[in-house]
User: What shape does this take?
Amino acid sequence: RAREMQQQLPPYEVLPADVSMEELPRSTTVLVEEPPRPPRDHLVWSLFTTLYGNFCCLGLLAFVFSVKSRDRKVLGDYSGALSYGSTAKCLNITALVINIVIVVIVVTVVALVVSGVIRNMQPPPYGPT
Assistant: This one.
């Protein structure tokens, strides 16, 4: 690997004795780093979860963590904002999954009642009718 790097480098040239380093043009390299992207706080998602799917107050809890994440982000504490934001995201996902399961169960029960599979949920009478 070291030989490959030596082959890629331009050949070394010795400066003539009559040329000094001060006479040569100088170059400056400036490296510009992009600032880190601020972490997401999931505030809008938490707001909708609070309004439309607040099962066991998970949406409200996600909203609180989202606001905390936004506060940390404004203060410049990106690690704290990332922590609060990921907690809000997990709470939003949990509330969403629970709400989807509830909707599927309700739709299934209503469909079974309408189709007549589930009647009065009473056992059939035994004996002469």
Notes: The two ends are 95 Å apart (CA to CA).
